[in-house]
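Notebook B, p. 112. Complex prediction, attempt 2.
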Amino acid sequence: MLEVAEVAKSFGGLRVLTDVSFTAPAGEVTALIGPNGAGKSTLVNLISGYLQPNAGRIQLDGEELTSRPAAKVFKMGVSRTFQVTGNTAELNVFECVAMAAYRQSKDFSTVNRIAEEQLRAFGLWRYRTRRLGDIPTAMVRVVDFARGMASNPKLLLLDEVMAGLTPAEVDVVIDQVRACRDTGVAIVMIEHVLQAVTALADSVVVLNNGQIIATGSMQDVSRSEEVRAAYLGRAATT
Amino acid sequence: MLMQILVTGLLQGVIYALIGLGLFLVFNVMRVVNFAHGYFVLIGMYGLLWIAPTSLPSYLVAAMGVALFAATFGYVIERWLLEFTLHKPGHAQLVITISLGIAMQYFFQIKFPEPYQTIANPWPFSSVEILGVSVNSGRLMAAVISLALTVLISWVVYRTSLGQNLRACSQSLPGAVHVGINFPRVYRGTFAFGAAIAAIAGALLIPFQPVSPHFGLDLTIKAFIIVVIGGVASIWGTVLAGLILGLAEAAGSTFVSGSLTSSVIYLLFLLVILVRPQGLIVRKADFA
Amino acid sequence: MTTLKALRNTTPRQTINTLIVVASMIGAIVFPWVVDPALVGVGFIALIYAMRNFTWNIAGGLVGLLSLAHVAGFGIGAFTVAILTWGHGVNVWLAILVGMLLSGLVGIVVSSIMSRFGVNAFFFALGTAALSLAVSGIAASWSLTGEVDGLQNHTSGEGLLHLQWFLDPKPLYYVALILLVVIVCFTMWLTSRTRFGRSLPFIREDPDMAASMGIDVVRNQALTMGLSMALTAIPGSLIAQYTSFVSYESVLTLEIGILMMVGAIIGGSSTLAGPIVAGIGIAALEEGLRAFDVTSSSVSSITQIIYAAIVILILRLGADGIVPMWNALLDRLFPSREHHEVEPELESNDKEPAHA
Ligand SMILES: Nc1ncnc2c1ncn2[C@@H]1O[C@H](COP(=O)(O)OP(=O)(O)O)[C@@H](O)[C@H]1O
Ligand SMILES: [Mg+2]
């Protein structure tokens, strides 16, 4: 179980997150939603050790993640996807997934077998010899997801992996998220594709202006006035 | 001996400052890391060696000629080899300027196989006594002219509208574009200007400093030392760093062999890079 | 790398490249017997260039550390042999190992310090250049390294144990060839089979992402730099044994360091074959110019200029180097079957591969 307690983060003078607390239990999908710029990606960056919080604590199954470097956090069982993939165009799809599988095994052929399993499960096998730059951008995030799965994580952080996918592809990914959840992984999913949130989320955390304004089931939060004002209302108009 | 160090160090330092200034402008305005800068100094040195002026007027004309040539050369280089690398990731710029420098070095090697040549002293007096130290007239005049040029350049940068454009591009390119500055032109101009300054420094050096093709690399590194130590804040940091380098060299070479002195300077520079990559002399305002 | 992949799943490009590798191996083996004895020395120099570029590229190409410190490793390799073997009678192979160790240590320390202070690529190049110049200056003024006059080999032992043959250059040529093959095979194994080696492209492309995949970026960078510089000491030692003379000017000038970098980039620093192709190319170019009756001092100058011009041209055209260009050409001439495997209904939203 992931526990985030009173986490705050600011960049220079800009306060991006204030007093954020929530939990994401194992074997459940926790959807993190909120308008653009709410601080969702920043929260993922904090949990995965990519950034350090200014205040607050982050724990996974009682173990401290706060102020651990990213590589250590990964070894402790946190896998993440990147919303914006920077300079990764040259990287090979198969190698990406295989590299993450080294968390499970040190053995060359085992690692390759895990990578193959994951690529096949996600329907990515045909891309295995390609560079990330040569496959559709939406697929890069699915590769990222497969990469996360290959590490057999305790916590999986998915940052808008479904953006830009066709409905058929969304279904494949939804099945994968379900399968992953059923193995007891805690999943934190940032998602704008409502089809996915409705289908998957066991609980929803709504973030706005760096603060949590509602938590609960999808039905609960969509009834909240504040959420409508902050998020659903705005999403409907844009 | 102290006087000797002080006088030769400062005189050499002023010329270093001028060389560093050219790199400073290019580095600051364009964020281009020009590893060929030292070789632009060689254009001045070998240019005069080739022209071989025999009188003071012909020397001055030749110096202006090589400056003009270097400016044109710099313009072409910027336009055709560097412009496409600007504001792009990757190391193309670094490798291109290094390779350009190497190509120039070996070109000079072929053209001027005889090493360590100088030209006849163009100045009408041979040496003067300063603070009890006898100074070669070439060295003295090089320092005087370098100082004058440094003051002139800082006046241009800080007091004219041309300089305002430079500073605008240096501080914020989007801002400069917003107020309607044609930045590619400013960039080309800056690079050409930087090359011309370097060539003039070369022309000033050649009467008393025998030239060899591998000086290019040494001077490039020295210019970087000056810019890094001087920081990006102001021209005066660069000038001060040039003087420090000149003094350090003069002091070093009185006690140990020349190559060991440079070794120590390079190692100190490495230290500066590590602890203060933003420069030793930092002022609050950014190049303003 | 080319051969390993070719064994797994062959595309026409890989088949052709495998044939080329096999053919050039055979060519390299018979070379000393079919050419004029004077050309064997040229072959040896070509192998040294290839080895130098290749070992630079382990850090420069695989991890993207634009290092100019490698010439220090090259020089350390040469001077260790000169001091230990020529001066103190230590076995030359032992001296080579010591040189590799020292050079590797320098690499590890340099990389660790640079990472510790968060130095960017430009300051890395500048700082390593300053280091090489400093080392060069020390070698030029230290009696141990012969100051400006350098050190001369007066030992008389001959044979493999002494790595010295007085009349016939062939054995040394084969030693260089075998070492090059060993280094290449080792690197291929490292980059395709080990976790450490497979992590290197991730560090090069995106260190932050690499860290979030559990890769110890700082450590792996330092180890790669150490390995790369340790291996660069080998061609330094070999050239010392070949010329029986070492001075700071012959093995420790920054120009040599720049040439390693430029050579690897011309050949294609993203490939393993590229730096070797470029190394052999420049040796051939030098020899070709000699055939044109150019004076010997100008030969190396002209090749350097051509070299610089080629690298500028390659970068200006946005190309990746000779070997990647060659691969792209092959892919265009013989489109791989890979493309047809893609299920038709999904192909529509599929971007064309870059090489098609
Ligand atoms: N590295 C950074 N430096 C400064 N500001 C940042 C940085 N990363 C994010 N921000 C700011 O933090 C806010 C939240 O961003 P982000 O977490 O990406 O939002 P979301 O993912 O919810 O759209 C935005 O206003 C963004 O501009
Ligand atoms: Mg986001």
